[in-house]
Amino acid sequence: MGITLELAQTAIQAAHEKALEMGVKMNIAVVDAGANLVAFVRMDDAWLGSLDISIKKAKTARFFDMPTGVIGSLSQPGGSLYNIEHSNGGLITFPGGIPIKDGSGKVIGAIGVSGHGVEDDHIVAEAGVSAVEGK
Amino acid sequence: MGITLELAQTAIQAAHEKALEMGVKMNIAVVDAGANLVAFVRMDDAWLGSLDISIKKAKTARFFDMPTGVIGSLSQPGGSLYNIEHSNGGLITFPGGIPIKDGSGKVIGAIGVSGHGVEDDHIVAEAGVSAVEGK
Amino acid sequence: MGITLELAQTAIQAAHEKALEMGVKMNIAVVDAGANLVAFVRMDDAWLGSLDISIKKAKTARFFDMPTGVIGSLSQPGGSLYNIEHSNGGLITFPGGIPIKDGSGKVIGAIGVSGHGVEDDHIVAEAGVSAVEGK
Amino acid sequence: MGITLELAQTAIQAAHEKALEMGVKMNIAVVDAGANLVAFVRMDDAWLGSLDISIKKAKTARFFDMPTGVIGSLSQPGGSLYNIEHSNGGLITFPGGIPIKDGSGKVIGAIGVSGHGVEDDHIVAEAGVSAVEGK
């Protein structure tokens, strides 16, 4: 089923440390290859509504094996995937979700981060991915 | 309720073969005249998020008896069916869903395909329709 | 993610043939190790309400890696898992769902069958499992 | 909103270590005073269906400020809370969910554990509570 709990916790810890360093309060979720939750943390006083968003970002990134922001660029009015967000019980397609690959390039899960501006969400998610990718 | 399992499986097999020929990995669903699932296949390593999308495309095509992309052209901001995707537990209105008719032109079901660019999804869906329409 | 489409179709075909032999009309679903649908067929004139039940049986069998009827024996009033059916968006815990294992005994997916008495559902599911288990 | 992430992670780590010691594979969730998820881990190869159950147990324990098993004793046929599981998007009322209190006895959150027999689930949950209660 892809990512282990140990790797998921390593990703979350790295993302958490990045968020602390940036002074932002985040919800951080990691799902496995089946898009099912493996580990999650919500930092104190992080936006409550970002709880569900972080999990949906992680799921969305695994559902289509690409960063969530890429999907969002295609789901705009007039875009080829307009309103794809209505599928799968609700997708989140702005930045902050990124697939996690193993050393061979196979997707083993994904991380989703939500709690601040979407650029910051993406930076924190990247910190999580960097800590584990290829391990 | 329209399409038989035998015809649905013929449509799915033709679509599956077309996808293999094109080198794309698809989720393929067929619903009957009641918009209920009759047959489904997910090709190995096809996008997981496309499972639900393929079924929603088939249902959407039967709900309104037209290709999903046509509905999408009407559901844009300012369009007459703006945000129709909120109905029926979630519609998908970009290409890849096509109604299936019998020899008399009566709609007996629909096919929905998802897994690649929406033009490819539509081509694969058409291969499925062509294999059974009028039979 | 476990079971391939080829194996899933082999299981469904064997179950379908068993159902024809028994003269019963079934919905037959196979999910992978992530409990996501891989293949599905609904026989002509099979109960429409059994569509969802067959998928939920397959998911339930994979969720807990045991036949659905075993869970049902524990979820009765007074039982240790009373009303477990309220989890996971709805479980079905009467017979007809069975995990599918590979040659090493690892669960790679599950089959769910619904459409007749639950004993018949279970027999048809077993025919599907027997056709692929250990392959 | 009650429990901090730090305390929630302490509870989860203690529960995780207890599960390892007992040789059982668990899903472990902690919610805050608002019954919203604060932290979660799923041990490798733990039952997939227990993911949702562990979260629902934690929520149920905080919803009513009592161990889930106590509610289950009242929700049986003929009991005063018969079928209370239908509320709140689905409750789980068998053992494995326990409220967490601060030093003054005020409930600050709850832990939910699922993955094995319900007695084991409860023991692992208690290990989590003991590690933080009154801190």
UniProtKB/TrEMBL annotation, chains A, B, C, D:
Membrane-traversing stretches: none
Database matches in InterPro entries: GlcG_carb_metab_protein (IPR052517), PduO/GlcC-like (IPR005624), PduO/GlcC-like_sf (IPR038084)
Coiled-coil ranges per UniProt: none
Protein name: Heme-binding protein
Native source organism of the sequence: Hymenobacter frigidus
Upper classification of the organism: Bacteria, Pseudomonadati, Bacteroidota, Cytophagia, Cytophagales
